[in-house]
# Entry
Amino acid sequence: MTANTAPDLTLADCCDRCGVASRNSVKARASALGVELVQESSTWKVWPAEFVPLGDGLAEHLKAKGATLANFPGSVPAAADGSDGG
# Structure
């Protein structure tokens, strides 16, 4: 097993990891960061493993006085879609 094989996190795992009580809080954080949660079934979403460090960074940021989702400097870069916007 290598370091690159970390599993995706369930929303319940994310709640525990971030210290929040609501899955909706996790969903709001994902949305603010631009992280697309993966729908594994009709009732099961997971946080992709590749974005766990970003979520951890946000959790640490939010512990600081005056810190908000809006003033967190990190997010998922927008995907290049190859279009020129027109």
